[in-house]
Design brief:
This protein is an alpha/beta fold. It contains twelve helices and ten strands.
Length: 267
Amino acid sequence: MAVTLTIDNAIATVQLDRPEKLNALDVEHLVELRKHLASASADPFVRAIVLTGGTGRAFCAGADLTASSQNDVGVAEGFGLTLEESGQRGLYIRLLDLRGLQIKKPLIAAVNGFCLGGGLELALQCDFIVASHASSFGLPEVVVSSLPGAGGVPNLLKAIPRNVAMRMLLTGERISAQRAYDVGLVTDLCPPEELAAVSASIASKIAENGPLAVQLVKMLAVQSENMAASQSQQLTELAWGLLRDTEDRREGKAAFAEKRKPNYRGR
């Protein structure tokens, strides 16, 4: 299995495991990745998901350009095919777009080594990125006369200052882990050997919180991004109202008053 899913203490870890290909993803493994992410998101016992490439040389070097596929179809024809069918016939970028999975649980990218092209596009779709000092980040598509096809341009522009993003996009150059941290692309830096422990620790902190509250906060972050202020506030009030009457909200208030750790059940 080149993409694996393990679950431990409410934390799901999805690991890319093609070290001989720097974890580059062909259609088969993109389909496998999507299946595992969807499974983890739907599992009621999972409260956070970590996407990682392990401690090898790469998180993900992007799409596997050496993989064989059928002749490309036209874009118009591809819209009429399923995601997997269009991917098999050349439109693999559709499989890199995770929005259709509607992942409800927090998704953390734990990056070690190369995070390039489609790999960075995957990481940018996570809620935040934790990285080792050995990491580097880039969208080098223009070097081979292409462009980031899975949202890399707008997502990078949202993640870091525009001028830094444009320099990366137009030159195709990589930036170091320290530079990525300095410009806000990465939230935490650590030695490579500590990456798994650091990402698991952050995921555990998330998992200790009220799971319904965490999922609704993520929903608000996603849904309100392009809303008018009045609309986002209305959605916020509705979400707050839903939480107010839950068992977990009552448990949270009781635990705070009694100075104890809450026992949330997702109800």
